[in-house]
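fyi for ur records
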Amino acid sequence: MFETLKNAFKVKEIRHKIYWTLLFLLIYRIGCFIPVPGVGTELLNSNITGSASYLNIMSMMTGGALANGTLFAMGIGPYINASIIMQLLAVAIPPLERLSKQGEEGRKKISAYTRYLAVILAIVQSIGILVGYGTLATAEGGDIPKLSAIIAGGVRNVNGFTNFLSYVIIILFYTAGTCATIWIGERITDYGVSNGISLLIFAGIIATVGLFITQQFSLIFSDSFNRTNLLYLIIYLILVVVVFGAIVFVDLAERKINVQYAKQVKGRKMYGGQSTVIPIKVNANGVMPLIFAFSILTFPELIMTLFNWTNALSWWSTWLGSTSRYPFYAILLSLLVVFFAFFYSQIQFNPEDISKTIQQNGGFIPGIRPGKPTADYLKKISNRLTLFGAIFLALLALIPTVVFNFIPTVTNGGAFSATGMLICVSVALEFNTALESQIMMKNYKGFLK
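which gave:
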């Protein structure tokens, strides 16, 4: 990867794209430190976000912007949720499915619908964040009453119209921050390198590494040199390196299926007669099954917090919370990861269409008859690879919960959580592939000249 970066900086056009990418990422990180009027930062810390799983995950993906209650507190989260919803609706609703197959115009319309849905989700999510915080501190140090009280009892039963306006202003700022984040991500995609949305998530997660290192060194050198804490940190980092290596190995692993094309004589020319492969990745779903599983498990917690169901929230945290001492959360998370891995694989990979394409071009898989037998063979291979990838994702989701929790003084959030590590590796590999493709394209243009 370092060699790729070195070669990329030698090409003027690619070098400018890298500079644009870094500039937009810098603007995004600056926005993560701009405070929102009416919200203080003293009470909006890890103690509050850590008490709710959905707030903890969102804070990790924004690099701590949510914990600080800043302008980009929600980050790109609403847009990701909107994209997932649109993908699912495109499968379930025939008009959207037809629209997705209409080429560039159809993709533009779906992108516009995704943005509109992201704004709606940003408004709803900002309300959920305020409710999740409970009693917040204002910039002057006073308390803002719970938004659930406004929803349940009306504005007049709280502190009048002023409190309602304060919530409206905060929600507008958070929603505007999400819109600005979406704009920055799209500009990176247009003028920079690789996918802008992925890079924003990557930047947010990587930003937590500095905070993690600072905390660990403060524990080691707090009063005097603490060898025990240093040993815990070394063991933790060794485990992290092993997990990163496993993620890279599985992420790059793929099954290549040989396809042979028969020779065809058209006029005086002969076509075909060549052999190629269909690569099927072991973990083709990426981080999506993990995001789906975490979203499903944290959604009830969000609803309970929104309507101030204290007893139900306490029961959920005790038995099914991410910090619960019972194994039900780990078991349910593993089952959901496996389920969504197969579900998302069915959406992304269609053996029937691939089989038809191979047959129409005069190709066949050696030893397999064209048509339905080919589709069944591809489906069987895909299911086996999906099962292996799902088991890997489930184990990856459980490692920080089970293994890392045995190491005291070390937290497993941020870049070293299951979702964080998988996203970091996937985005880094995607960025490297994009750079290699652009370098190769420039070399081809130079050769043709």
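DSSP finds 18 helices and seven strands in the chain. thats all i got for now
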